[in-house]
Design goal:
It comes from Novosphingobium cyanobacteriorum. The protein has 301 residues and is of the alpha/beta class. The chain contains ten helices and 14 strands. The chain has a six-stranded mixed beta sheet with strand order 3-2-1-4-7-6, with helices on both faces. The protein has a five-stranded mixed beta sheet with strand order 12-11-10-13-14.
Length: 301
């Protein structure tokens, strides 16, 4: 991508797509679209539509995408690169396609076997390598980075290479429970805030989940708790259980993700005797997709 040209970078997740237009070395515009799990049509059609008005105002030299753009539901399959993998090995496995005359580059995901258990990620690796671009200290020594989300990742890094990781589908579980069961509670009536429910969930987060989940419903029926309290309780219970399993007592963690979500994870880690520094996930993915952009290029329209 020429620094004086126009290019597009994008993070395509299962629930949403974020595209950024780069001109003269700076992000000048943004588009949001549907994720691969909620698209109404083929990924190529979605991308072409979102690029349409940008293309009408000038040439786009290329598009670089990460995440689910490389899945079977995306633009072009991008195989998983096995761990351990440093940034060079990861970028060497990228795949390329042309869409209506525009060169498309899709970055691969990563794979790993943890004690024989298969693990995969798509998109989180871009945030990790981007975080190391913005803060080179993270590329030294051994570290653990946590990336909360639909499928949360707990990633081991050694001298800039991702050596392994584990996945906790906490976000997906929370969405399924609060949407498709009686536990979450949609009724606004009752007492208690999300924050109060979260605290109660954290307090029970070391208990087996099967026995702890039902308080979300029983507390509404017996104690008059609100639906917001119940959702906070489930969030605290699930996030707390994840933090207890992977981060209890750790003082050197790095959290990468949405600020509202990393705040909840930092609270859960503190409850279990840990602590972490936080990095904005969007800034990290931008740095991973376009390392030449300045580390401060996180503010955009």
């Amino acid at each position: 991508m020429a620094p004086d040209g126009r290019s597009v970078i994008g993070d395509w997740g299962g629930t949403r797509l974020r595209l950024f237009l780069i001109a003269d070395g700076h992000i000048v515009d943004r588009r949001d679209g549907p994720g691969t799990s909620v698209m109404a049509g083929p990924a190529a059609n979605v991308l072409q539509e979102l690029l349409g008005d940008w293309r009408s105002t000038g040439r786009i030299d290329g598009v670089t995408l990460c995440g689910m753009a490389g899945s079977p539901a995306g633009i072009i399959p991008a195989p998983y690169t096995p761990c351990p993998a440093d940034e060079a090995a990861w970028r060497a496995a990228q795949v390329e396609e042309t869409l209506d005359g525009v060169p498309i580059t899709v970055l691969p995901g990563l794979s790993h076997r943890d004690s024989g258990v298969p693990e995969v990620m798509r998109g989180e690796e871009t945030q990790i390598f981007g975080a190391m671009v913005s803060n080179p200290v993270l590329a030294t020594g051994e570290r653990v980075l946590a990336l909360p989300g639909t499928h949360g990742k707990w990633v081991r890094v050694c001298n800039g290479a991702i050596t392994g990781f584990r996945t906790a589908p906490t976000g997906e579980l929370f969405a399924a429970i609060t949407t498709h069961t009686s536990l979450g509670g949609q009724d606004p009536s009752g007492e208690g805030t999300f924050d109060q429910g979260f605290a109660r969930g954290l307090a029970r987060s070391t208990e087996p989940l099967a026995g702890a989940l039902f308080e979300a419903r029983a507390a509404r029926l017996i104690d008059g708790r609100s639906g917001n309290w119940a959702q906070g309780y489930l969030s605290g219970l699930l996030i707390g259980a994840e933090a207890a399993q992977f981060g209890a007592g750790r003082q050197d963690l790095v959290l990468i993700g949405d600020p509202a979500l990393t705040t909840l994870y930092a609270r859960a880690l503190a409850h279990h005797g840990g602590s972490a520094q936080t990095i904005d996930g969007e800034a990290a993915v931008i740095a991973g997709l376009a390392p030449s952009l300045a580390a401060t290029e996180s503010r955009h329209p």
